[in-house]
Amino acid sequence: MAVIGVGIDVVDIERFMGSLARTPGLSDRLFTPAEASRPPASLAARFAAKEALAKALGAPVGMAWHDAEVTSEDSGRPRLVLRGSVLARADELGVRHHHLSLSHDAGIASAVVVLES
């Protein structure tokens, strides 16, 4: 396996939630219904994950936010579900494995994505 891409992103939770409150429909554009039901820190971390994934993929034009979903395994471990435009770009790059780490503390949410062949 070789590393194809790495992405990292950080989000100020309060600022992000303010953006969601000020912009009608933004939450619906960014998150699937399952993601949208999460608490603020978790939402911000999921947004950071999608941004980190976009960076790891080379910031492809036309990426649909719903085509990358952050779910949780029974253990609580975060997992990326790729579909549509995001899956097509990952396949184009030869991505066979991906890793995701999320964190939030002191008002900041962060995510790291590693893509491997």
From TrEMBL:
Gene3D superfamilies: 4'-phosphopantetheinyl transferase domain (3.90.470.20)
Superkingdom, taxonomy of origin: Bacteria
Cited function: Transfers the 4'-phosphopantetheine moiety from coenzyme A to a Ser of acyl-carrier-protein.
Family as reported in the entry's similarity comment: Belongs to the P-Pant transferase superfamily. AcpS family.
UniProt-listed InterPro entries: 4-PPantetheinyl_Trfase_dom, 4-PPantetheinyl_Trfase_dom_sf, ACPS, Ppantetheine-prot_Trfase_dom
Gene from which this protein is expressed: acpS
Catalytic activity reported: apo-[ACP] + CoA = holo-[ACP] + adenosine 3',5'-bisphosphate + H(+)
NCBIfam families: acpS (TIGR00516), pantethn_trn (TIGR00556), PRK00070.3-2 (NF000832)
Record-given protein name: Holo-[acyl-carrier-protein] synthase
Residues the record lists as binding Mg(2+): D9, E51
All copies of domain 4'-phosphopantetheinyl transferase, residue ranges: 5-95
Cofactor: Mg(2+)
Enzymatic class: transferase
Documented EC number(s): 2.7.8.7
Taxonomic classification: Bacteria, Bacillati, Actinomycetota, Actinomycetes, Propionibacteriales
SUPFAM superfamilies from the UniProt entry: 4'-phosphopantetheinyl transferase
Location of this chain's protein in the cell: Cytoplasm
